[in-house]
Amino acid sequence: MTAIHADIDALTGLRAALTRFRYAQREVTDRGADAIEGTRASLEAKASHWRARLEQGRAELAACRDRAAAEQDAPVDCSGYARAVSEAGERLEHIRLWQQRIDQQVIEFQGAASRFKNLLETDLPRAEEQLAAIIASLHAARRVQPSGS
Predict the structure, then answer these.
(1) d(Cα 125, Cα 119) in Å, to the nearest integer?
(2) pLDDT over 70 percentage in the chain
(3) CATH number (domain holding residue 57)
(4) DSSP 144
(5) Which of 50, 54, 129 is nearest to 95 (CA)?
(6) 37, 56, 112, 143 - which has most CB atoms within 10 Å?
(7) Are 120 and 25 in contact (CB under 8 A)?
(8) Coil, helix or strand for 1?
(9) Please, are residues 22 and 123 in contact by the beta-carbon 8 Å criterion?
(10) pLDDT in tens, 73-131
């Protein structure tokens, strides 16, 4: 009978380990999703900042050009404004490229993450239930006394 006790204990331990694994991995997937959303939000905040800087730079450049046109006898240097507009545009484009890269990687990641989440939400609970049934049947078999004893 000690072999059956060891089997029951081993299966009970396996079931408990699967349950702990499922909960721990669920937290990991949630943190991964949070990290993705955090990254997207950060990039969007940066894009918003640089869009605003670009619009401000364009307005300042247009105002400088208007001053230059109005003051034809005195030269007005608008090159600093033009550089600011160019820099803001380049940074905004760089951020857009990163957003596209992130979006492409997320699409690829979400397929694997979805399969993993399905494993955690469907397959592992099913395996835990099967282990519980096996453990219950082993407990029942342990209670059965051999005939003739």
Answers:
(1) 9
(2) 95
(3) 1.10.287
(4) S
(5) 50
(6) 56
(7) yes
(8) coil
(9) no
(10) 888 999 999 999 999 999 999 999 999 999 999 999 888 888 999 999 999 999 999 99
- Domain membership of residue 33 (yes or no) is yes
Half-sphere exposure of 76 (CA within 13 A, CB side): 17
- Residue 19: give the domain boundaries: 2-141
Residue 105 lies in a domain: yes
Q: Which amino acid, 6?
A: A
**Is residue 73 assigned to a domain?**
yes
In a domain, 149, yes or no: no
Query: In angstroms, rounded to a whole number, what is the distance separating the alpha carbons of residues 67 and 85?
Result: 17
Largest CA distance in the chain: 122
CB-based contacts of 117-121 (< 8 A; 24+ apart in sequence): 117/29, 120/22, 120/25, 120/26, 120/29
Q: Give how many domains the chain has, as a whole number.
A: 1
* Three-state secondary structure readout of 8-35: HHHHHHHHHHHHHHHHHHHHHHHHHHHH
d(CA 66, CA 71): 9
